[in-house]
Amino acid sequence: MPLVHVHMAKGRTDEQKRALLQGITRVMHETVGAPVESVRVWISEFEATEFIAGGEILADRRVRLAAEAAAAPAQQEWNEEGTS
Q1: Would you list the DSSP string of 2-68?
Q2: Residue 22 Rama label (left phi>0; alpha psi -120 to 50; beta)
Q3: Cβ(40)–Cβ(29) under 8 Å?
């Protein structure tokens, strides 16, 4: 009986989680031949403030990436005008 425990930050919809659980079950069946009925998959979610990777708290990383994405169009306009 394969057991798969997924740890991930909160923020996915129920539909996304359902697709993930079903997809993992299917892949376990297809790759290792486990009967679908025997595959067990569950998700444990954590807050973005409870995880760090590469020295950066996930919540801080999300804020930084959002700020960078917001600044990107302004930088692109600047470049398209030929003034940079």
Answers
A1: -EEEEEEES---HHHHHHHHHHHHHHHHHHH---GGG-EEEEEEE-GGG-EETTEEHHHHHHHHHHH
A2: alpha
A3: no
- Residue at 46: amino acid letter: F
CB 41 within 8 A of CB 25: yes
Counting other chains too, the contacts that 15-21 makes at CB distance below 8 Å and 24 or more residues apart are 17/43
Active-site residue list: 2
Q: Which 8-state DSSP code applies to residue 1?
A: -
Q: pLDDT, tens digit, for every residue of 33-70? A: 999 999 999 999 999 999 999 999 999 999 999 999 99
